[in-house]
Amino acid sequence: MNAVPRLDDILTRADVWRGGVMATSVQPGLPTGFAELDAELPGGGWARGGLCELLPTRTGVGELSLLLPALARLSASELSWVVCVAPPHPLHAPALAQGGIALERLLIAGAPGRDAAWTCARALDTDGVGAVVAWLPGADATLLRRLHLAAEANRSLLFVFRPAACAAEASPAPLRLQLDGEGERLRVHILKRRGAACALPLSLAVPRPALLPAASLPAAMPACAQAAPTLSPSSPPPLSSLSSLPPSSHALARPVPAALAARRASLRLF
Amino acid sequence: MPLDARPCACSDAAPPCAVVERERIVVADDRAQAAGIVSGLRLASARARLPELVVQPRDPAQESAALTRLACSAGAFTSEVSLAPPATLLLEIACSLRFFGGVERLFAGIVQAATEQGLRVQAALAPTPLAAQWLAFAGGADAGFGTPASLDAAPLAHRLGVLPLARLALPAAQEKRLAAFGAGTLADVLRLPRAGLARRVGADFVADLARALGEIPDPRARFVFPEHFSQTLELPARSESALALAFAARRLIAALSGWLAARAAGIRECFLDLRCERTTGAPPALTLSLSFAEVTRDAQRIGRVLDERLARLQLPASVESLCLRATAPEPLAGREAALFAADGSSARGHAARGAGGATIAELIERLQARLGEHGVYRLAAHPEHRPENATQKNAPLARQDAQGTGVAQHGPRPLWLLPAPQALSEQGGRPQRGGPLHLLAGPERIESGWWDEGEPSAVGDVRRDYFIAVSQRCEWLWIFRSEAGWFLHGLFA
C-alpha cells in the first residue's frame, strides 16, 4: 500500500484546479488564433477533447469566424475531418475556403431534431474526426454531458451552439462562452472555465468584411455617404447608372450585346 | 483436418416440438426427448406420450439451404469447405490456425458462428475427415467423445476406439453384421484382423476404417462458393418488429461476409428483400438497398447500416421471409488485422479498424442510412458568380478536383447564405431590419445567368447590387438590391 498522498501533491496534479487560479492542462490546447483568448483559456487554446458551449446573442455577430482559425488548422494542417451537424442555414463554400478550411475534409450532416445529437455521438466515435460543430438548440444537460464524455474519450473538439437564453441554465460544459457583437469586434464573455472566473469580457478582432467608419457605431447611424454615394433617400438611381462604378467590384459573366443592353436599360428601370 | 457440424432443424419455441417424416419422428427437441420421444418413434405413439407435441414436417429444401448458408459463413474461416449431405459440413482448418490464434480459439469461433446461424451443432476436430465425421455423429465435444480436441494423429485410434458403433450412421447391414460379432465399439472392430473383416463385412467398411485412421487418403469434393450471393431465410414466425428482422438478418449477413471472405471480395451495395404476408393492396416484397461508402465485407458494418434502415422502415405487412442478395462483388484485398489489437491476437472480421473508433467511411454510410442519401454531403466552391450556385453539394467520399480557378476575383462572401433571399422593408430609401441598416461597402454588381432563365429549379438571370451592411444590433449582413427591392442574402457569422 502506498502512503497517503500529501495535499500538495494532489494540488499539483493537472486534473485538479483551485478556484482562485486558472487551471493548467497536461495537453496543450489548439490555438484559437486570437492571442487574447488563448491567454484566458486553460491550456492556451481550445482544449483537445471536451465540450465548448457557444452562446451567441444573435446570428451574424462573428460567431463562426471565432472558430475558423482553429477549424482551418485542424482540416488543412492536421488533416483531420471537421463535421458540421445541423447548421441552421446553408454554409457558403467560397467563404469557408477563404477562411482556410480544406473543404474536402468538411462533412456536413443536415440532421433534423433528435438525429442531431445521435449524429454528434457517431461522429465523436470516429477516428480521424478533429472537431464537431453542432447546433443543438434543444439539448438538455444529460445529453450535453454524454457528448462531452464522448468528445473527451476521442480527444476531439466539440463546439455546440445554443441560444443565448441558455446562459442561465446549468451546463456540464467545462467552457462556456457568450458571444456578442461590438462594432466590428466580437465581445466574448467567458461564463465558465476551469479555474478562476474571468470578470471582464474580451474583445476580439475577428475578420470582418468591411471597416466601420470611425465615428459611426450603430447606435448613432449617420448617412452612409462614402459607402454608397448614389443612395440618397429622395431619388434611388436606376441600376443602369450604378454600373458606372469601378469595374473591380463587378461580376459580369457575359458579353452583353449592345442592342440587348440598350433594350434592358430601357425596360428595367426602377 | 476437417471439422464436422451437424445441423438439426430445431427451434427453441416454448412448446416441445419434433420433426416428422413419413409418420416417424426424425428429431425431437430437449423437452420432447425428456418425455420419451426418440427418433424413429411412430407419430401416433409420440402423440400418446406427449399430447401437446408440436409436429413439423421435414423440409429437405430448407435443410439444404441452411447447410449452404452454414457453408458460406464458414468461408470466413477457411476456403476449403466440403459438404457431406444431408447434414454435415467439413472444414479444412490446418491453413487457418495461425491467423486465428490457435486450434482452441478457432474451434470455439467456428462453433459460435454456427450457433449464431441458429443451428445446434455437434462439432468435432480430427486429423482426417471421416474421423471427424464419426466423432461428430457420436455427439461431438458435448458428448465427451471429441475431447481433447486435437489434430494429433497419434491418439486418433484411441479416440475413435471408444465410439459406439450404433452411433456412427453406418449402413444398416454393416451395423447388424458387426453387432452379430459382439462388437459394441470401434475398438472391438479395430482389434479384428482386417482381411477377415473385409471378407465378412465388406471391403468398403475396411477402406472406411483405413480412411478414418489416415492410412489411405480421403479426398473430398470442395464446396463451390456460388457466383452470386442470394440466400433466403424463412422466419419461424411472421414478424413486424424491426428488431426481430435485424436479428434474423444477422444470420444472412454472416453468411454473406463468409462468402465474400472466401471469394476475396467485398461489396458496395447489397439488397435485402422483405417478403411480406400476402394482403390486398400491399406489394409482396419490399427491397432495401444497403449501400456502403467503400468496398467492405465487415459483417458488423453491414449490420449497423441495416439497423438504421430498418429502424426507419414502415412495414406494410408482417414479413415472412428475408432474402439477401449481392450481385456485384468487387475484389478486396486480404483481411487486415490491427497491429495493436486489444486482445493481442488477430481476431476475425476486424478489417481496417483503428484503435477503437470507426473509420470516416463507416461514419458516412451510417449517417446516410439514417439521414438519407442527401442528408450528408461535402461542399465545394464552384467558380460561378451567382452566390446560389457558388456552393456545390458533393457526395461524401466522391473524388473532388482541386477548385479555385475563377473564384478569387470576388469581394468578401458571408459564411451563411440564406436558402432564399429575404425581402427587407424600405423606409426613406434605406433598407430596414430592426432599424435602418448601415451600408458599409458596395455595391458589388452581380449580373449573370441569362442562360438558365426560365428553367425549373435554376436561379435564372439575376441583376443585383450587393452591399455589406451592419444592423443596429451589430449583425453583419450581406444584402442586395434588385428591381424588386432590398433583400437579405447572407450573414457574416
From TrEMBL, chain A:
Q: According to the UniProt record, where is the region Disordered?
A: 227-246
What NCBIfam families has UniProt attached to this entry? ImuA_translesion (NF033429)
**InterPro entries per UniProt:** ImuA_translesion, P-loop_NTPase
Domain of life of the organism encoding this protein: Bacteria
Q: What is this protein called?
A: Cell division inhibitor SulA/protein ImuA
Q: Which organism is it from?
A: Rhodocyclus tenuis (Rhodospirillum tenue)
